[in-house]
């Protein structure tokens, strides 16, 4: 009976994983061949703070885009390093780049982005982050895909820059599962999450939904916008093309990783979207089931079989969920890290959740609000 009670939480988790993963078998996730549109103008918007180690690479990546009909709007959020000087030098003789500085009475990524949006001339707004490296076809592919599908909101994949080491592989695998949650839920018309490092929005859509982006919360400009568009509704799509891929750097160490995840988790308490809350609770109960069965088995050895069943079902679900994206992005070497991550993940998931309730992390030397 005890084991059956735990399985009641695992089985729904497995079923929702199967449901979402079936998106990879849908024709909706096949690469649509975007129609070339050489006249459409796009505004690429990047808000940054203290990115002296990355801003130069980003600007070079944007300058190398196959799409030529664009503007790059860089908005400085009160950097106190050399970011602005680097950006000024690289934009001095480039009329495609507009460098803005946020007013002293304003601060934060959301306000910086809104400032950039107000200055944007394009029908479409294409967002990424200063520590990202888009492919050279990125802007062209995203713009043409949005035009072809007439999307109001377009999300696309973000991957970590590939680095060696056990810890980096675990982070890479965990991050792919988050990106896959976004892609599959969007394909299933149940949009749950996305990543601001790679998304395109019609300017009129952004301005219409701006007030819904919870201005009192430091992060979440992407997900709150997604949820607002989903409710109205607007057309939300996912571009699965490798040409639309953006890479970003993983957290430098364990402390920065935890801080980032706590920052992300802290906004989940403000979600009003049913699908996000529902999947969040299923994931919570599934991980609790693994932990409860594990600690019970330590003190009552006859329950080791129960733990094994619960753990293997949870691991099977996790394997199914990342199988197709790892194959798509040619990262099959990460299959070997699914089992180690499954052992760690329940402790990590509950730990991050608890920290997000009591701890306010800093971002770029600034206290966030949630």
- Average pLDDT confidence is 90
What separation lies between the terminal Cα atoms? 41 Å
What is the N-to-C order of secondary-structure elements (H for helix, E for strand)? HEHEHEHEEHEEHEHHEEHHHHEE
CATH architectural name of the largest domain: Alpha-Beta Complex
Multimer state = single chain
Low-confidence stretches: none
Task: Give the proportion of residues in helices.
Answer: 40-55%
Q: Which range does the strand content fall in?
A: 5-15%
Which homologous superfamily in CATH is the superfamily of the largest domain?
Spore Coat Polysaccharide Biosynthesis Protein SpsA, Chain A
What's the total helix number?
12
Inertia-based shape: globular
| Radius of gyration, in angstroms, nearest whole number | 21 Å
> What fold name stands as the CATH topology of the largest domain?
Spore Coat Polysaccharide Biosynthesis Protein SpsA, Chain A
Strand order of the largest sheet: 3-2-1-4-8-6-9
Largest sheet features = 7 strands, mixed
Description:
This protein is α/β, with parallel strands linked by helices and 370 residues long. It folds into 2 domains: 2-22 and 273-367; 30-270, Spore Coat Polysaccharide Biosynthesis Protein SpsA, Chain A, CATH 3.90.550. It has 12 helices and 12 strands. It has helices spanning 2-21, 55-63, 83-91, 109-119, 138-149, 166-187, 203-209, 221-231, 254-266, 274-299, 304-328, 338-358, and strands at 42-48, 70-76, 97-101, 124-127, 132-134, 153-155, 158-160, 199-202, 236-238, 246-248, 362-363, 366-367. It is globular and about 75 Å long. The mean pLDDT is 90.
């Amino acid at each position: 009976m005890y084991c059956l009670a735990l399985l009641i939480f695992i089985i729904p988790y497995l079923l929702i994983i199967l449901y979402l993963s079936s998106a990879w078998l849908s024709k909706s996730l096949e690469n649509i061949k975007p129609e070339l549109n050489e006249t459409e103008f796009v505004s690429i918007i990047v808000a940054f703070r203290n990115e002296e180690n990355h801003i130069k690479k980003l600007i070079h990546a944007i300058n190398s885009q196959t799409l030529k009909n664009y503007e790059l709007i860089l908005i400085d959020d009160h950097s106190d390093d050399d970011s602005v000087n680097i950006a000024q030098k690289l934009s001095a003789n480039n009329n495609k780049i507009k460098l803005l500085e946020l007013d002293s009475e304003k601060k934060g990524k959301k306000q910086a982005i809104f400032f950039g949006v107000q200055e944007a001339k394009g029908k479409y707004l294409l967002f990424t982050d200063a520590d990202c490296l888009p492919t050279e076809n990125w802007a062209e592919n995203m713009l043409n895909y949005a035009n072809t599908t007439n999307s109001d909101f377009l999300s696309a994949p973000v991957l970590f820059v590939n680095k060696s080491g056990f810890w980096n592989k675990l982070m890479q695998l965990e991050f792919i599962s988050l990106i896959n949650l976004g892609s599959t839920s969007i394909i299933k018309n149940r949009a749950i999450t996305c990543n601001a490092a790679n998304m395109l929005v019609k300017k009129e859509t952004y301005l219409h939904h701006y007030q819904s982006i919870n201005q009192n919360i430091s992060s979440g400009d992407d997900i709150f916008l997604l949820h607002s568009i989903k409710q109205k509704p607007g057309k939300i799509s996912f571009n699965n093309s490798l040409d639309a891929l953006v890479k970003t750097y993983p957290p430098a160490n364990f402390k920065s990783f935890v801080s980032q995840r706590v920052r992300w988790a802290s906004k989940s308490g403000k979600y009003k979207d049913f699908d996000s809350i529902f999947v969040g609770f299923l994931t919570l109960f599934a991980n609790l089931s693994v932990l409860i069965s594990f600690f019970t088995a330590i003190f009552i050895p006859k329950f080791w079989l129960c733990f094994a069943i619960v753990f293997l079902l949870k691991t099977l679900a996790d394997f199914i969920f990342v199988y197709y994206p790892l194959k798509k992005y040619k990262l099959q070497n990460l299959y070997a890290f699914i089992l180690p991550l499954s052992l760690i993940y329940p402790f990590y998931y509950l730990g991050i959740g608890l920290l997000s309730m009591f701890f306010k992390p800093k971002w770029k030397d600034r206290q966030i609000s949630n």
